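Re: export button greyed out
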Amino acid sequence: MAVTTTTPSTAGKTSLTTSASTPGWARWANRHRKWLFASPAMVFVAVLIIFPVAWTLYLSLTNAEGSVRAESEFVGFANYLDVLSDTERFWPAVLRTVVFTGGVLAAEIVLGMAIALLLWRPFKGEKWVRVAILLPLVATPVAVGMMWRLIFDPNIGMANRVLGWVGLGPWPWLAGEHSALPTTMLIDVWQWTPMIVLILLAGLTSLSDEPQEAALIDGASAWQRFRHVTLPLLMPTLVVAVLLRGIDALKTFDILYATKGKGGGSFHEVETLNVYAYGLSFDYNEYGVSSTVLIIFFLIIIGSMWAVTSRRKDAA
Amino acid sequence: MAGATTGTETDVLRQSSVIVTSLAVAAALGLSACGGGDAEGSGSKTVRVTLANHVWTDNLKKALPEFEKQTGLKVEITQLGEDQLSDQYNVKLNAGSSDIDVMMYRPLQEGKLFAKNKYLADLTDKVKSNKDWNWGDFKSGPVQATTYENKVVGVPIITEQEVLYYRKDLLKKAGYTNPPKTLDELKSMAAKIKSQNPGVAGFVARTGKSPAVTQFSSFLYSFGGDFVDSNGKSAVNTPEAKQAYAFYGGLIKDLGPANVSTDMGWPEAMAIFTQGKAAFYTEANSLYKNATDPAKSKVSGTVGFAPFPAGPAGSKPYSIPSWALGVNDASNNKANAWKFIEWATSKQQTLENEKAGVPGGRTSVAEDPAATATYPKDLVEANAEMAKNGVGHDRPLVVKVAEAREIVGQPIVDAITGKDAGASADAANEKFQKFLDDENK
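Workaround output, generated via the alternate export path:
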């Protein structure tokens, strides 16, 4: 095992490629090869990420509205003051974003972990079960939204009919002022738990059996083995899953828009920051304010990403 | 030996498959490059038209080959739903794109915004240039809506009024021989029918904060109110307006479908009516085919139409141009774009559309008996009745219509969900006044 990864062989390769006979440009290219190889990706990032973010930042400091080509004035941080003091649309949207993300993330991690543990050990027909579980993941969110809209229709939907069989309901589901957000969260959990399952399952299958066996011999119970052996070993994978899904959940738009439409419903029941920013720019044509909301949203995402990754470093 | 031969054969095969793949890639690149060149270069013979999903659009597409044959032009149609259409315009027009030549737009929704942003080309000279086409034939209300600062920026193609859809069979069962003449009658009849038929609502209409505004407007006018008063001040908390909000919301709350959602636009409300789940429905008459077409409606045989019922101030339904055609100011192909519009809004095309149930903007066609020969008789009568006393707008006439609709629509959903409509109207009034002040700054 050690033989294949010895340093001499690697060092030999490097010196071979930069021998004295190679022309100057090749040597230069070789010395800067990490920049050279990364440059297409860096140009791509600059054009498609840095420029739009910088432009949005600029717009957020202007009073651009109606048309982005129309003349606009530089207004400094006026938009930021307006937005941060807006308790009618902005702060409720922040709260909804946090509730939505926190709620679906918790549910998806717990459910995803449970399902991944169930599917971990080989069993008869596991292929079919795995395919079935992954199906929601491949469906397009808008189609998913439309499907659940029908299921949750208060009068003709399947959900209330099923509730009726067991003597419950009818519930308003998506139609209710206070039940709409939990209902959209339910849809999100239905759709995205499989992704968590997929990531955790990959993590679980890469774990070696020895620690488990050792714990088993020491007489650890199933829960103890999970809590003190599997979970710590799985931690890096879990952090990745939380990070990926968390950022994605923060940015959820499709399911909310497909089920409740513009503005997140008549009472803005499911209006998260993303839906709010969309409404500001596409309905109200308030590009300055919309950009401000997006920049604040961007900072929130970066902040939460940083929080999760720094915790991960602490843990490691 | 045999092994070696097979090996060489495989190599040859592998090599040739590599060559084939590279050729295919090269060809694909070449083709896409040509495609790009085409789209940019030959704009002169291709007119790019963006249209909304509408019966009007379906009719136009049927007649299109004839236009292409006559003129030698090629028409490329992009057809989108209302919301997607708005988004498309927002993105493309904002970017100054010349991708769109002709655009179907809503004069009352985005007309002012587009004209103000100079997205719409000035058509004043063009509409006056052709005597046979005859701009003077267009109804004055719609023409006013497609004119901005004395410049013509669009040609009206579809006009509509709010009409009462009702179920003849349910009325008969309840002992009524005629549809309601007043809003009070509407309420009492709806209540009686609801109590007689479990599972059937007495009344249904749009409930979404923004979509409901236009259909609520006729109620508002018939109660004697309006969104803005004659001095340009917000008027959504006048006693008349408060009554109208409470009445509309109350109808849906008390006599509407159970567990009613506050997200309904016309497709959802129409679905409830055409599924036989409601007795009365107030909606734009231009959508009547959805209710009378057996393929779309379970109650197609028993649908009746009546003029909008009278309120304390009489029957005052909106009567508006809902769609128009304009030319993108950034288009490089304005002459041909105009040719297309001239044809699409010609007398002949307008007549064809009216025959298919889509009322257009021309007076001569509206008066032509041939145009309405296929309509339900009661609808023709209702339309004629309403043309007399219609109001020319169905939403606040402002630049930022979407925002305004959400403000004045809030009391509607508050009334539907049983909140205090009066207090909500007061709050909306304050916000709307602030909105108007901002916009007129």
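The interface with chain B takes residues 66-70, 153-156, 170, 172, 174-175, 177, 260-263, 265-267, 281-285 of chain A (CB under 8 Å). The button fix ships in the next patch.
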